[in-house]
Write a structure and sequence with these properties.
Number of helices: 10
Radius of gyration: 17 Å
Largest sheet: 4 strands, mixed
InterPro entries: Glutathione-S-Trfase_C_sf, Glutathione_S-Trfase, Glutathione_S-Trfase_N, GST_C, GST_Omega/HSP26, SspA_C, SspA_N, Thioredoxin-like_sf
Family: Belongs to the GST superfamily. HSP26 family.
Strand content: 5-15%
Pfam families: GST_C, GST_N_2
Helix content: 55-70%
Number of strands: 4
Protein name: Glutathione S-transferase N-terminal domain-containing protein
């Protein structure tokens, strides 16, 4: 089935209402100030449009006219190039490669722990919390090194990291003893109007915004 006329004429995002990868894309859109239509999706019962558009039936899925993109990393890089201001990737190839590698590690190492906590049994959830706290502890020097994650300016890496930090309290994951740098990092981003715009009502209930 072809995309509906409404979707052909607007940027449309199929998104779960509480998913760290979908939140990542919504944060990029908010940082860019892009207007779009949001279609809330229950991943257990995806709508027919999504079944037709995306062979994996996954979210996030972005539709712009005849273009259909899926996988958060692909969608985010497209949005950064499609809407270049403000830029969310550095100019030089070395820094871009480092940020891409950091985002890949977040997807492969961090996100599965969140999914285990949210979707797994009690044993899997506890293992996910333990591993996520280990990853946070190991990353403290990176949060201390720069104002943003691996960069002096906000980047796509922050759009991937901030939704994770936002969920820590709700996931039952305490910061490490020397985790003030992580808390300060999160608060810098959470206070921004773009971050507030990126939140669904369900995500707003996960914790309080900093004053």
């Amino acid at each position: 089935m072809a995309a509906s006329p409404r979707m052909r004429n607007a940027l449309t995002l199929f998104s779960s209402v509480d998913d760290v990868l979908c939140h990542r894309v919504r944060l990029v859109l908010a940082a860019k100030g892009v207007t779009y239509d949001l279609i809330a999706v229950d991943p257990q019962s995806p709508p027919e449009d999504l079944l037709d558009l995306n062979p994996y039936h996954s979210v996030p899925t972005l539709v712009e006219r005849d273009l259909v993109l899926y996988a958060a990393s692909v969608v985010c890089e497209y949005l950064d190039e499609r809407y270049p201001h403000p830029p969310l990737m550095p100019v030089d190839p070395l820094s871009r490669a480092r940020l891409r590698l950091a985002m890949l590690r977040l997807e492969h190492d961090w996100v599965p722990q969140i999914q285990a906590i949210q979707l797994g049994n009690k044993q899997q959830a506890e293992a996910g919390r333990k591993r996520l706290r280990e990853l946070l502890t190991a990353s403290v020097p990176l949060f201390k090194a720069s104002k943003f994650f691996l960069s002096a300016e906000m980047s796509l890496a922050d759009c991937a990291m901030a939704p994770i930090i936002w969920r820590l309290q709700a996931l039952g994951v305490a910061l490490p003893k020397d985790g003030k740098a992580i808390e300060d990092y999160g608060n810098r981003i959470f206070r921004g109007p773009g971050f507030v715009r990126s939140l669904t009502p369900q995500e707003k209930n996960l914790r309080e915004l900093p004053e």
